[in-house]
Amino acid sequence: MRIWTLHPKYLDPRGLVALWREALLAQKVLRGDTIGYKAHPQLLRFRAQPDPVAAIAHYLTNIHDEAVARGYCFDANKISPGTMTNNIIETRGQLLYEWQHLKAKLHVRHPEQFSHLRRIKAPDPHPLFTIIPGEVRDWEHVKSH
After folding, report:
1. Number of compact structural domains in the chain
2. How far is Cα 46 from Cα 29, in angstroms, rounded to an integer?
3. How many angstroms separate the Cα of 8 from the Cα of each of 20, 35, 138?
4. With bands split at pLDDT 50, 70 and 90, how would you rate the model's confidence at 145?
């Protein structure tokens, strides 16, 4: 499961669909509707919020917005109700690690998308996140690229 800190605009079609599905699974986990993935480290930052389901709903809403902008038909009715009034704090190190991870994936999977992104040094975060100085999070399974 990869719940990107990056803005979904950077994802290729396959990546955007995968993110939608994984975030919907995360929503099920946070609602207590499944027995799997309960301890998944990607969910820690959502669980730390006053209303974890509202946090993932906000996350999903932005993915849905990106999908609609691209002409996709993601079902907004799958997003749980809830309002998130604050952003989740995330570190620049985490954002940049994910950026390198995504570019490595796209270099192989979608070279055209990679060529559009490779010169971007400071990617935008998903609108749910406010970026602060800091390193890659301890929960991240760091892989060398």
Report:
1. 1
2. 11
3. 10, 27, 23
4. low
Per-residue pLDDT tens over the stretch 85-142: 889 999 999 999 999 999 999 999 998 889 889 889 899 999 999 999 999 999 888 8
What is the DSSP code string of 34-76? -SSSTT-GGGHHHHTSSSHHHHHHHHHHHHHHHHHHTT----G
Report d(CA 23, CA 63) in Å as an integer: 9
For residue 91, give every residue at least 6 positions away whose Cβ sits within 8 Å of its Cβ, in sequence order, or none. Answer: 131, 132, 133, 134, 135, 136, 137
The answer as to whether 17 is a domain residue is yes
Say if 144 falls within a structural domain: no
pLDDT attached to residue 51: 94
**Phi/psi at 39 (nearest 5 deg)?**
-100, 15
Find residue 91's DSSP bridge partners: 132
Torsion region of 144: left, alpha or beta (phi above 0 gives left; psi -120 to 50 gives alpha): beta
Domain that holds residue 60: 8-132
Looking at the domain assignment, is residue 52 inside a domain?
A: yes
Q: Is residue 145 part of a domain?
A: no
